[in-house]
Write a structure and sequence with these properties.
The chain is an alpha/beta fold and about 210 residues long. It has helices at about 15-30, 60-80, 105-110, 195-200, and strands at about 5-10, 35-40, 50-55, 85-90, 95-100, 120-125, 150, 160, 180-190. Strands 1, 2, 3, 4, 5, 6, 7, 8 and 9 form a nine-stranded mixed beta sheet that branches.
Length: about 210
């Protein structure tokens, strides 16, 4: 039985997919990553061993689109529990990080926890200080280039599932389950890591 799977869903992304593959692939192995592409026209990433599938795109409002996406991810996650002990699900621009002071790997830490349905990380919304920081270099680590962020309830999400469950829109909650925030886990949101890129990418969000 494999141990930890990671799921995300993306549409028209030219910024985060490769970072997502590199980061989570290093932690859990690319063969345990599951990327859902929203639209049959979406190009699958090349030179990778991840599991990638395309689903037909539906033109929906922001709120209905979020609900539709999380339903698709929740369904896939439930099926993966036939093979995996843990499933992580988050947006393509979100990265789950363990406090290095724990002296543990992310995989080891998540496998140690067992008496819960889900686990939440503390959300950190990372942004660009346009007066002090340059445009992002996608070839370099994000946190080497950014020094500003805020603790954000919006990104404090129960992204780690320990058993089959149903996420609410945007993974902000788990339906019919308690909410457990772990003191050693952080969810870094990089949606605004580059101001010009981020503010110019809102046209096809539905």
């Amino acid at each position: 039985m494999d141990e930890i799977a990671v799921i995300s869903m993306a549409r028209n992304d030219d910024m985060f997919i490769q970072k997502w593959i590199s980061y989570y692939g290093n932690h859990f192995g690319e063969h345990n990553l599951f990327l859902i592409l929203d639209g049959m026209d979406q190009k699958k990433p090349s030179n990778t061993n991840i599991n990638c599938l395309r689903v037909p795109h539906k033109k929906l409002s922001r709120s209905k689109g979020d609900k539709n996406r999380v339903q698709i991810v929740s369904s896939l996650a439930k099926s993966l529990f036939k093979r995996y002990k843990r499933v992580i699900a988050c947006d393509i621009d979100e990265f789950l990080v363990l406090d290095p002071n724990t002296k543990s790997t992310l995989s080891e830490y998540l496998l140690e926890k067992s008496n819960r349905a889900s686990l939440s990380a503390l959300g950190v919304d990372v942004g660009q200080h346009i007066d002090k920081e340059q445009a992002i270099d996608l070839k370099a680590a994000f946190l080497d280039q950014r020094s500003f962020g805020i603790i954000a309830a919006r990104y404090t999400k129960p992204v780690v599932a320990y058993k089959p469950l149903n996420w609410g829109s945007g993974y902000h909650r788990v339906k019919w389950r308690n909410y457990n925030i772990d003191n050693n886990l952080y969810l870094f949101h990089f949606g605004m890591v580059d101001y010009k890129r981020s503010t110019g990418k809102t046209e096809d969000a539905s």
